[in-house]
Amino acid sequence: MTGPGWPLNVPVLSDGMVTLRAHTPADIDRALEMAHDPDMIRWTAIPTPHSRAMSEQFALEVIPKGWNEGTAMGWAVEFEGRYAGNVDVRGKEALADVGYALHPDCRGQGVMTAAVRLAVDHAFVEAGKEVVQWSAHVGNVGSLRVAHACGFRLHGTEPDRLIERGRILDAWTGSIRFGDAPMPRTRWLESTLETERLRLRPLRETDVPRIVEACSDPSTRHFLSNLPDPYGPAEGRSYVHDSWWHAATGDRETWAIAARDDDRLLGTVSVMGLTGPTPGTGEIGYWMHPDARASGLMTEAVRAVVDHALDADGLDLARLAIVAAEGNTASLRVAESLGFARYGTEHGTARLGDGGVTDHHLFERMRAQ
User: Which residues form the N-acetyltransferase domain (predicted)?
Assistant: First the structure.
């Protein structure tokens, strides 16, 4: 004897803020609005251009088929009395994967985090799943935030994981197992610091043109010889996306050094190696756009980062390191002016942009006891 078909076989799940339920014809107007959202088009495989008939087919044919055949569990997400998006857990076996999409007017309110927690809990407790996998286009920071908040282990970037609209794409990946707590595994490293002339904030994609200019500069490339060549917008976006991933995994915090008056990117500074073998330690790295050099701005920015990194209410580190190449006078001066002590030299470890090799000078600063 078989059970009831869709929509009677769709369990209604709620945490008091969001409700997961079967789709209805009343959802189609907002589903179509979501399908036309630029971020939805950019980050998902949704067909585009998208028609009302396509939204109806997905909600009222594709989703019901998944429930009836046992291949996927797809819910409409309801928030404040209106359709807010979709969440689905796909796969017949113990290993499944999760997908989700949210209407633009419901973003930034924790809606999808709550929805994914409900769906994944049902998949484990009621549907017998053992592992739920997550993947998203590299750069889809909204999806990454949901996976992070829901307790997914963040594995890394898998090349050539996705094919969408004829494009083969790299993907961020993660997974959660039955019994795992649905809470963040790491602290997302994201803060804003202000000084007299600067605002230090997370990197944005709007910073890419200035990143490209700085990383194409001969002086920058001389001391950062591992930069891609040529360095274009794709490389700049990759740098920004990489900063978001490392923020989520707790391994690195990167700040855009921005002018307080117009928010123009002047450079970047990072604290790296925070998940290394020695807890409580990190390394600072930095670079400046050519038009902001010789102004004292880098010293001002790094001072703020050092204070934050050594503060118990900041990164709570006991030791910071700076490594600078012989001949990189500006970088060496920053380290010395901020009280970093030179404790050694590594000979022949600094590869330069002209193919030459020089020494690295090692600096450290300890938190006052």
Answer: 18-175, 198-369
